[in-house]
Amino acid sequence: MRQHPPELLDPARSGRLEIRACQCPFCTRHGSRAAADPNGRLTISVEDRAKLQTYRFGLRTADYLVCRECGVYVAAIAGDGAEARAIVIVNALDDREQFSREPIPVRYDAETREQRLARRRSACMPVEIQGI
């Protein structure tokens, strides 16, 4: 999988983006540092569908993308089509060094399904997935 978030990778903007570190067991084990720019756009290119693992947790509000080959957590996508919104996992990016801000620890486990969907609609960025 290749990720192409050109607006995120602009050095002038990457230093201003908030980097979050979810404290759930999944994200903690993956050392996740997540970013989203509601004014940006993320494009994910899937070159081999067989290497893409998607997973949905209990509230079923997003698909978590994990590489079956190396185990890297790549992104989380909520919604479908033109309504799809995503976060990108900074550690999965080739240019991750540009995202040097200390991550802000966050906890979402108290959110209801509706609250989580609303947060994702407002805080996540539009996404396009190519190749699936």
- How helical, in percent, are the residues? 10-25%
Shape: globular
Structural class, please? alpha+beta
According to DSSP, the number of beta strands is 10
Low-confidence sequence ranges: 4-11
- Which radius of gyration do the C-alpha atoms yield? 14 Å
β-strand percent reads 25-35%
Per-chain topology:
Elements: E1 2-4, H1 6-9, H2 11-14, E2 20-22, H3 25-30, E3 34-35, E4 42-45, E5 52-55, E6 63-67, E7 73-78, E8 85-89, E9 104-106, H4 113-123, E10 125-130
Parallel strand pairs: 2-9, 4-10
Antiparallel strand pairs: 1-4, 3-8, 5-6, 6-7, 7-8, 8-10
Structure, briefly:
The chain has 132 residues and is an alpha+beta fold. The chain is built from four helices and ten strands.
Q: What does this protein look like?
A:
There is one protein chain. The protein has about 130 residues and is α+β, with helices and mostly antiparallel strands. Strand 7 and strand 8 form a beta hairpin. The relative contact order is 0.27.
Descriptive tags:
globular, two-stranded parallel sheet, 132 residues, eight-stranded mixed beta sheet, 10 strands, 31% strand
